[in-house]
Design a protein that fits this description.
Helix content: 25-40%
Strand content: 15-25%
Shape: globular
Order of helices and strands: HHEEEHEHEHHEEE
Radius of gyration: 17 Å
Number of helices: 6
């Protein structure tokens, strides 16, 4: 069902504001908070980087007890929504913070809702993944969350920087490496997750 443009604009505004204030969560965020993060808070994933923060991500560090949970966002005004030791900088500079924030490297990076929302140029996207490859440990996991309006997963997987440094993996025991969510009445608001692992030194 298509809404009148004015009605769609009003719906979009209410949608974001109520979500931002924690009154509800869209299905892709529920998947992240109820399934993905709980899975990664166990086992070997102790050093975690979450790229991009907002009001609705403020509770995420509490979901990951007993981990070193670091957040980064280029907007200094959003620091109050970040984790302890939050980095106010571009992810393009993340390798500069390895010694100070994660000297043992990273076991997991959640790179969600960044492409098209601050990271817009193809060369910036390429550099972001190159930087993340520098700080992710071998077999460390990279979760990429995107709106296919800005970049499709086929395009991501076709990038040389992805092919050279990462491989596709299934999430948990799902057997799937890709998940797609489409909120009702939200035009161009589909959200996709892709699960990857950092290649080892001798891995082709």
């Amino acid at each position: 069902m298509d809404l009148h443009p004015l009605g769609q604009h009003l719906f979009d505004y209410v949608y974001f504001q109520t979500w931002s204030w924690g009154l509800w969560s869209p299905p892709d965020r529920l998947f992240l908070t109820k399934e993905v993060l709980p899975f990664y808070r166990k086992g070997r994933f102790k050093n975690i980087l979450f790229v991009g923060v907002h009001r609705y991500t403020k509770s995420y560090p509490k979901l990951m007890p007993n981990t070193r949970f670091v957040t980064i966002d280029i907007d200094p005004s959003l620091e109050k929504f970040g984790a302890k030791g939050h980095i106010s900088d571009s992810v393009l500079n993340i390798s500069q913070y390895r010694s100070s924030h994660f000297p043992d490297g990273l076991d997991l990076v959640v790179f969600n809702g960044v492409i098209g929302f601050g990271l817009d140029k193809p060369e910036e996207v390429t550099e972001a993944f190159a930087q993340l490859a520098k700080v992710l440990n071998p077999r460390g996991h990279l979760i990429i969350g995107t709106n296919p309006k800005f970049i499709k997963q086929e395009s991501l997987l076709g990038m040389p920087v992805i092919q050279e440094n990462f491989r596709i993996i299934p999430f948990a025991d799902s057997g799937s490496s890709s998940f797609r969510f489409e909120p009702p009445l939200q035009r161009n608001a589909a959200h996709e997750y892709l699960f990857l692992s950092r290649r080892g030194q001798n891995e082709n």
